[in-house]
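haha ok so turns out i had the wrong file open the whole time. this is the CORRECT one, sorry everyone. sequence first:
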Amino acid sequence: MTTHFCTASARGSASDAGTALGNALSERLAGHDPELVMVFASTSQPLAGVSAALVQRFPGATVLGASTAGEFTEEGDGKQGAVACAMSGDFKVSAGLGSGLSADPQRAVEQALGGGAQAIEGYSHRSALMLLDPLTGRGEEAVLLAGARLGAGVPLAGGAAGDDLQMSATHVGCGTSVESDAVVLAVIHSRVPLGLGVSHGHRPLSEPMKVTRASESTVYEIDGRPAWAVWAEQTRASAAERGVDPNALQDSEVGAYLLRYEAGLPAGAELKIRAPLSRNDDGSLAFACAIPEGATLRITESVPEAQIESARRAARQARERAGTKLAGAIVFDCICRNLILGDRFGTAVDAISSELGGVPLAGFETYGEIALSAGDMSGFHNTTTVVFAVAE
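then structure:
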């Protein structure tokens, strides 16, 4: 049976956007009933309302969703809207939502998975999708717990929900259940492999250094010195080429500076990127997720051209790993990459689409990206592109 994959975008109120998305998807599916529908909605179209409309329109489908910091399809990117994709074909989907992620991530992951980790006879391939609330600070832990539960042979892709950079409350949904402080997991059982690609556009700028004092997502000292002082010292030469002195930055300018010079943690032969968000009054740095004391990191550098090429590379990996003609793709792309690329973010989306052969794709700008696969950079990422390619 051929897989059908289509996308749609909409604006307006949550109910109007959900109805418009349902109408467009139904028309493009041309009579095929979807097994999976995914919706990504800004805070302008609250996820609960959009999801409810799609559940009503496609009662036989698994409907998953996340709030966003931006949305896109193969037709372009935008803000303050909603996008959705639908998949029909010869595969089965099991999914669930786990509550209380911050208090007990293991229980939440188990609740979300239920019995979905078990293989189904006749479907020799399993892949998993994961959506979670990153404001719990449990992103890395939840991903590793899910990976252990699923097993090494099951690639896991996904993203952390956003809230249009308000940093107040993010939501994920499974069916009509939409919650904060939660995780959603779906296992896709298929007869052919689905492709996972992951890449970032950063290169090492410093030698390895040790985090000597940290607490959760705040790094106080690196090699026994205040974290910001080390960051400024190690990036000064590169910044000088652009006429920037890190020690002369105003507080309002530090965030954009840190997006150019992020942290890289060893992950095999690659680096896993961690985004520093702000400089505190005591010279410490606040990161997007936890950095353990004792960790080794390198300061990295990135430019827009490298971010565009890394998006293309992630798409190429996903296409090659699917190993056959594609029907479409789901993309999880960091809001930090949008802030780095500015009005060139659409160019990166075009690069993904081109590398995938122009098939439909839908995605959202995340507060963290999920990619877990044997031999890859694995776990919870920042400022990274993750592409989940669906074979035809």
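Residues 4-200+306-391 form one domain.
again sry for the mixup
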